[in-house]
Structures are given as structure tokens and as C-alpha cells.
Amino acid sequence: xxxxxxxxxxxxxxxxxxxxxxxxxxxxxxxxxxxxxxxxxxxxxxxxxxxxxxxxxxxxxxxxxxxxxxxxxxxxxxxxxxxxxxxxxxxxxxxxxxxxxxxxxxxxxxxxxxxxxxxxxxxxxxxxxxxxxxxxxxxxxxxxxxxxxxxxxxxxxxxxxxxxxxxxxxxxxxxxxxxxxxxxxxxxxxxxxxxxxxxxxxxxxxxxxxxxxxxxxxxxxxx
Length: 223
Fold this sequence. Notes:
It is built from ten helices and three strands; from the N terminus they run H-H-H-H-H-H-H-H-H-E-E-E-H. The chain is mainly α. The chain folds into two domains: 144 residues, Orthogonal Bundle (Ribonuclease iii, N-terminal Endonuclease Domain, Chain A), CATH 1.10.1520; 68 residues, Double Stranded RNA Binding Domain, CATH 3.30.160.20.
């Protein structure tokens, strides 16, 4: 567990059952004892906690808007963004094929591992512990969450934010393309020179990587 001590510090949680964290970080390509069941459990816990957080924070929002906000917060790009900030990809155990194709950077794998960790915390210490961790991980996203942006993709949202302040539109630069042709991973950087802001996103397509980069850049620009 020593190799994971840095990760547990970032999570703000010490596992009593270390094998749960190891399982949460194990992809199906590595072992039959993988994180898929924990991911299933963590997904349910996450949706419940996020729903409660939104219910508390936005007492006047109707059900439909709360549902769209929740969908935004628990979608793959939001989860993989949090996972990337934790350096989760460095700890995920992958099979040889996934390693060669850069699986540790694939948004779906990162998002699944984060959900699995939430499920593992729930099993290890109960709902309250999982809720506390989710609150901590989601604090930056919630602090910058604007209900008016519901339903808008990150690139559109960032563009409107910059236009409203008469700032030049961002530049999207393809930094790297990794993996085999049938399972490539794209890395794109979003740059806003006027604000000295830049952020990188990854995705299974260039568009997906641009969207994640725009989302992360918007979070930095709007602070």
C-alpha cells in the first residue's frame, strides 16, 4: 500500500481493507478480480451523493434542472477530469494490450476507476465516508457550477464566457495521438493566451479531447 499512500492522502481516506483499493484500481484486462462490480456500486453511491449536494446547494431549482446538473457532474468527462487531477492513471493496473495503447489515459478507464474507488470506500467504511470523499473531490466543480450553463457543451460555454468579456477565442492544439489506429487516444491543449490559461484534455476522439480541455480551461478561467 506504500505506493498508494500519496493517492490515499489526496482522497482523504485510509482504507482498512487495502485489497479493496487494489481491486478498485484493477482493470478487467489485468485480472478477473477487477473493478467492474465496485464501479457498479460506486456509480449508485455517486449519483445519490451528487443528487443530495445539488438539492442542498440549489433550493430553488426544479427537478429537471437538477437532473441535468447531476448528469453533467457524473458524466465520463467530469469523472475522468477528477481522476486525472488525482494522477489515478499512474496507479491503475492494466493488461499488456491496454498498457501499450495508453489505457491509463483513456477517459472511460479513468472514470470507471474513480467510481470503483467510491464503491470501495462505501464497502470499507459506509455511506458517510463515501459521501465525505465525494464532497471533497467535487468541491471545485460545485464552487464553479453555473446552473445557467445547463445543457451547453464545454466548448460553447467557454466561447460564450470569453465573448462576454471581449476576450479572444481559445486555441485548440493537438499535442499527441497515442495507441493503435482502432483505439487511439488524443491529447489536446486548450489555450487562452489573454488569460494565461491552458488545460489539456484526453479522449477517444479529437472532439472529445477538445471538449474536456475546454471544460478544464473554463474552470480555470472562471475562478
